[in-house]
Structures are given as C-alpha cells and as structure tokens.
Design a protein that fits this description.
single chain; alpha+beta; Multidrug-efflux Transporter 1 Regulator Bmrr, Chain A; 2 helices; 8 strands; Effector binding domain-containing protein; Cass2; AraC_E-bd; Reg_factor_effector_dom_sf
Length: 148
C-alpha cells in the first residue's frame, strides 16, 4: 500500500501563503488553515496555474516549523497581492504516496524506508507534502523527504 521510491524534482517556483509557529502544538490545525486560505483565493491565479495540486513545502527546526500552502507557478509569473513567491532548488527525494487520512502512516513508512535504503535525510532542505484536490473525502497525497 505504501510504495516508496527515490525521485528527482527540478527547481520549482511556488506562490502562496505560509505559517510559522510552535511545533508540534500548532500542527496540523495551522497547516489546514493556511491551505484553506490558499484555496479561498485560487480564482486570483491565472488560468495556466493548476490549482488542483497544492504544494506544501515545510521545515522544522527544534520546536518551530514553517509550513507553506502554494501552487506551482512559472518563474516570473505575476502572483496575487499579499502572497509570497519563492523557489526550491532541485533535490532528490524519498517519495511515498498515501492519502489525507493516512499521512501519519505514510511518514512512518517513508522514514523506515529511508533508513533501510541507507540514505540520509538532507538537513536544511524542505520536505514537501503534495495534495491532489479532488473534492473527495479521501484524496491522494505524496510525501517528499529530501535525501542525499
């Protein structure tokens, strides 16, 4: 059910919102709020932006986390007022596919798989949660953990 693999993502450009706060106390509730904030403004993006896929890069440092809810945008694309844009460099990731209801199990499987493969999580790089919005009770999610 939880198949893991190594993938490479090229440099990506994103636009959206973020939240920074205490970890783990603020999560997942604040992550859901920032995704809802993005979803409520998806009509402000140009038609060439796929608003059915939400990218949520995040990083955790000790007990503080920053979590983003974004759409992938072409470099230099105009972004709606009040949103931020940034790019993530190319990385190799350990990837597992799960659902919005099995994220916790997905993380357990991908971290076990990373250890069994003998690769290391890349410190200082963002992990990414990718949500495929289907307006269903259970939606596909990919978890990407940067590795070296």
């Amino acid at each position: 059910m939880f198949n893991c693999e190594l993938i490479k993502r090229d440099t990506s450009h994103f636009a959206g919102f973020s939240f920074s706060g205490p970890f783990p106390q603020s999560f997942p509730s604040e992550a859901v709020k920032v995704q809802q904030q993005l979803g409520s403004r998806k009509s402000e993006f140009t038609p060439n932006i796929n608003t059915d896929v939400v990218f949520s890069p995040y990083f955790v440092c000790d007990n503080l986390a920053t979590y983003f809810a974004c759409y992938e945008v072409p470099e230099g694309n105009a972004i709606p007022e009040g949103m931020m844009s940034f790019k993530l460099p190319s990385h190799t990731y350990a990837k597992v596919t799960c659902t919005n209801k099995t994220i916790r199990d997905g993380y357990g499987h991908v971290f076990d798989w990373i250890q069994k493969q003998g690769v290391k999580q890349l410190s200082g790089a963002c992990s990414i949660e990718i949500f495929y919005i289907e307006q269903a009770d259970e939606e596909r999610v990919e978890l990407l953990i940067p590795v070296e």
